[in-house]
Amino acid sequence: MRRVDRDLGRFRAIVEGHVRRNLREFVRKGDLLAREGAKTVRVPLPQVELPRFRFGSKDGRDGGVGQGPGRPGEPAQGEAGESAGEHEMEAEVTLEDLARILGEELSLPRIEPRGTRKIEADMLRYRSIRRTGPRSLRHFKRTFRTALRRQILDGSYDARRPIVVPLPEDERFRSFEVTPLPESSAAIVYMMDVSGSMGAEQKEVVRHTAFWLDTWIRSQYRNVAVRYVVHDAEAREVDREQFFHLKESGGTKISSAYRLCMDMCERDHPRDRWNVYAFHFSDGDNWSGGDTQECLDLLASRLLPAVNQFAYGQVKSAYGSGQFKHDLDRKFPDREDLVTAEIADRDGILPAIRQFLGRGR
What we know:
By secondary structure, the protein is α/β, with parallel strands linked by helices.
């Protein structure tokens, strides 16, 4: 193994250890959300500078305590500097690795897909080097370095005429590993109450939770579609940006969101082809007991049979009654495909994710 590969492995282990130790803090503060890319996130790393002594001259010309210009009692004032400041260091972590860390830290089981598209597809990843292979995969740098090392050892290398001629035994080729990828498709439907009782902090809790749910579910499926539904007294589909930034207003009629979710599932994500995950977030304050009963009936008759799992996250607010979770738990005490969780604040996000994903459905 090359030294650079060994050093890179050590650096990755350091970064991974940093993520593991600070996972709860990353989840609570949402540090990774603003650094999210298509396939990676940028993880902030602390910079540690070892303390060291700097010796001055014996005659005191370098200054010291109580020395230098100025009179006693004058405030210390400095001039504007021209040197560069210190900046926070960041390292890239793939979303695949982030999902693996999340799964290991929360002991999440792998999801068993449902539906007809369960065949695993093999993906080739070039990660190693071997001595044989096709000319198209010849690794020039490794071949050159091997030939250079051989010529130095046998004394045929002349620094004045640095000519390196690779022999057949010097050639190195890129080698691939076969990584199985699930072929099943998944659809995630996020539903959120945007009535007047759901404020900015409640939406931030939902946003942080959705990021980690996305990260895990995307690691389990090759194709993932994400849909967003907001509701007050009426429900409508929106894009991701609108979902997390719509201003709250109006009353709450949860059944409107459940009906729209059912229409999406039946029209676009039928259960024989898709693995559907529905997540609903609210403060638990519904418009009336009659609408709550309609929600329970819709879940039992149409929505639960259409999804792999339905998850309800009750986000605490100053105005929400929290009654809806109690109604769900009383109606469906033993259903494997329905799970509820209370999210009192950002510290409750990880326990909620463990409850939502811990059944491996």
